Amino acid sequence: MVGTDMEWYESGPKRITEVGISVLPVLQGPLSKPIHALNNMEVHHIRLKNTAHMINGEKCPGHPEEFEFGSTCFVDLQEAKQAFTEAFIQHDAYGNPRPIILCGHAIDNDLDILRKNFEIDLEAWDVIVLVLDTQAMAKELGMNPSHLMSLKSILEQYCVEEKYLHNAGNDIAQTMVAASLLAGEVTTGRGRYSPVNQIDVDNLKAMMRNRNTFSWGTPLFCTNCDSTEHLVGQCPKTYICTRCAYRASWKHMAHTHPVGKCVRPPFPCKDCIESTNKSRQRDAMTHYIEDCHLEKCKSHPFSSSQSPC
Question: What positions does the domain Gfd2/YDR514C-like C-terminal occupy (predicted)?
Answer without folding.
Answer: 2-179
